[in-house]
């Protein structure tokens, strides 16, 4: 089972709701990578919007709220970038490996 051999894949698939199915491992890894990249783009847009709000905010409450949004977006971006790095490492590790254990046909089985 690919998920028992690659806990990163299992953890991220569960976290992001990427379905477990019979597609080859490289396909699933690419799907996860694209999903994380979409999440990163979304957080970057949230952060950019909050920074624009900061420019027009006038009272302390609004500035505080915007600062919290930026802080949360930065935290989420750091988490996503770390996950993407983990996944990229997993992709490198799995390149060139057989998808299932090799079978020994030398003994006639």
UniProtKB/TrEMBL annotation:
InterPro entries (UniProt xref): HR1_rho-bd, HR1_rpt_sf, PKN_HR1_1
UniProt xrefs under Pfam families: HR1
Domain REM-1: 15-93
Domain of life assignment: Eukaryota
Coiled coil: 63-97
Keyword Signal appears in the UniProt entry: no
GO BP terms, alphabetized: signal transduction
Keyword Repeat: yes
Keywords on record: Coiled coil, Repeat
GO MF terms held by the record: protein serine/threonine kinase activity; small GTPase binding
UniProt name for this protein: REM-1 domain-containing protein
């Amino acid at each position: 089972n690919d998920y028992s051999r690659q806990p990163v894949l299992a953890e991220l698939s569960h976290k992001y709701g990427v379905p477990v199915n019979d597609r080859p491992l490289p396909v699933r890894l690419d799907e996860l990578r694209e999903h994380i990249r979409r999440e990163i783009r979304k957080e970057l847009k949230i952060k950019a919007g909050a920074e624009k709000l900061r420019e027009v905010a006038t009272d302390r409450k609004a500035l505080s709220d915007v600062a919290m949004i930026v802080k949360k977006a930065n935290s989420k971006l750091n988490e996503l970038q770390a996950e993407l790095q983990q996944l990229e490492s997993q992709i490198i590790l799995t390149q060139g490996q057989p998808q299932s254990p090799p079978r020994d046909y030398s003994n006639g089985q």
